[in-house]
Amino acid sequence: MRHTRGALIVAATALAPALLLTTPAFAAGQPSASTAVTATSQTDGTPVDEMDEHDLRIAILRILADEDSGLRVTREADAALDGTVEDMRTFLKTGYRLAQAEDDSVAIFRIIGPSPDTRSAVYREAVKAIEDNSPEALRAFLETGYRLARAEDDRVAVARILADPTISPALRAAAEDAIDGTPEELRYFLETGRYEVDG
Question: N or C: which end of the chain has fewer CB within 10 A?
Answer without folding.
Answer: C
